[in-house]
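Morning. Coffee machine broken again, so started the prediction first thing and wrote up yesterday's gels while waiting. Chain of 284 residues, entered below exactly as on the submission form.
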Amino acid sequence: MPLARSIGVLRNSAISALAALFLYPEISFAQNQIPPQLVDLKLLLAVDVSGSIDFWEANLQRDGYVQALKDETVINTILSGQTGRIALSYVEWAGGSHQRVVVDWSLIDSREAAHAVANRLAERPHMAGRRTSIGNMLNYGTNWLQDTRFFAERQVIDISGDGPNNTGAKVDEARDRAIAHGITINALPILNERPSPYGFPKLVDLDVYYEECVIGGSGAFVIVAKGIRSFAAAVRRKMILEVAGLTPEGPVRVVPVQMGSGAKPYQCDIGEQQLHEFLNRGED
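Came back before lunch.
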């Protein structure tokens, strides 16, 4: 490595460590421990692979993120930040304890790094799961974001799915826990008109459900994918906004969630109710 570049790397590492100590004074580093690297954003991509997402749709979802990570506008937005780098992880989720890390926390600080993460993502096999537990995923994501290899003032869980929470932790309680940890939750609900392969009813106002029950934190927003074929364009738009720290303009609603407001106009357990009715409809 050229001397100038070596000096630059050392300087950036020192700045990252000092900045992390300034931002998080409660953190102390053990002797010989590698200090955390300061990044503009820690972004967790949480992608639904429950039974309502078939293999073809799962491929389109995965390809949407691969395309976004190779998109020049997305990459340039990453490189234009204060530090010019983000940390990104990709987790697929369903119900119960099905939270599968497909890509561990990875530094994206160059075009080559973004393409490398995209290629790793494209190579990993799919693994579907049963049920839909947004609440369990949000709890998992809140813990996963505590990884000490990277520090960022902005931490975002970017969650996509085509149905409401129907098992596991209560979604609004998991949302509020994430907000209490300083995490922003953005969402990409998929308004999928294809009937469920198991005959499970669709939630017609899924976008409203995500607005009222799932997203929260500073500048939280929802961008809707109207069908799986429009998923890639929605992912690209959402990642650009998240990396830049912006919120969408136009008809997309931005819904700040007020902790402790007590006002819950939407029935956030509607998915659990639907599942209960579905499982018991033949018993009467």
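The longest helix spans residues 3-23. Going to sketch it on the whiteboard this afternoon.
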